[in-house]
């Protein structure tokens, strides 16, 4: 019987496509996580096991000297798995960390000016209590540790600003040299 294509080329092509398609399985999730800027709804254990399995599979391909397409696709798969986890977790941490530092420029400005003139005390009060409640929610709901750390940092900055309001409420008066003996 006459075949239009070489069987070995066909088998290699099918093998490559099967591994390549499997390697790209994580891409739709990566895109969704990037659009949502969140890994909400994803099991971290599933991502860990998936990555762990891909690492072992790629190692197996390398040790067994499997055709190059297998270990290239395996490396691609591991890279996508790690990128999904590391990138999204990094973006998530940076977003809560930057939010935690929102009060820092005001804290520094107040310190340099030795004044909180112009700041709404009610705003700082509500800001502080909002951050306390948010951080309490993170702790009670057992949110990931980056939320705890950033929440506590944010509350600390809020409390320092609140302390500045109390500390700087009376303007400084220069001490006359006549009083210094």
TrEMBL record:
Keywords noted in UniProt: Membrane, Transmembrane, Transmembrane helix
Listed transmembrane segments: 6-25, 45-63, 83-102, 122-140, 146-168
One GO BP: phospholipid translocation
UniProt xrefs under InterPro entries: PQ-loop_rpt, SLC66/Scramblase_ANY1
Any Pfam family: PQ-loop
The keyword Membrane is assigned to this record: yes
Domain of life: Eukaryota
Localisation: Membrane
Membrane topology note: Multi-pass membrane protein
Secretion signal span: none
One annotated Gene Ontology cellular component of this protein: cytosol
Protein name: PQ-loop repeat-containing protein 1
Organism of provenance: Oppiella nova
Record lineage: Eukaryota, Metazoa, Ecdysozoa, Arthropoda, Chelicerata
């Amino acid at each position: 019987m006459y075949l239009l294509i070489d069987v070995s080329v066909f088998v290699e092509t099918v093998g490559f496509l099967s591994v390549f398609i499997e390697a790209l399985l994580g891409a739709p999730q990566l895109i969704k996580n990037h659009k949502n800027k969140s890994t909400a709804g994803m099991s971290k254990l599933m991502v860990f096991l998936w990555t762990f399995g891909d690492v072992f599979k790629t190692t197996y391909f390398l040790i067994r000297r499997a055709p190059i397409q297998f270990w290239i696709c395996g490396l691609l798969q591991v890279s996508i798995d790690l990128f999904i986890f590391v990138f999204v977790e990094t973006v998530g941490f940076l977003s809560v960390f930057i939010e935690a530092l929102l009060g820092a420029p005001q804290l520094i400005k107040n310190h340099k000016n030795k004044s909180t003139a112009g700041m709404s005390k009610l705003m700082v009060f509500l800001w502080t209590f909002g951050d306390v409640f948010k951080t309490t929610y993170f702790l009670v709901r057992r949110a990931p540790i980056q939320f705890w750390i950033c929440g506590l940092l944010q509350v600390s900055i809020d409390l320092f600003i609140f302390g500045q309001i109390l500390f700087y409420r009376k303007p400084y008066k220069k001490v006359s040299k006549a009083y210094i003996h």
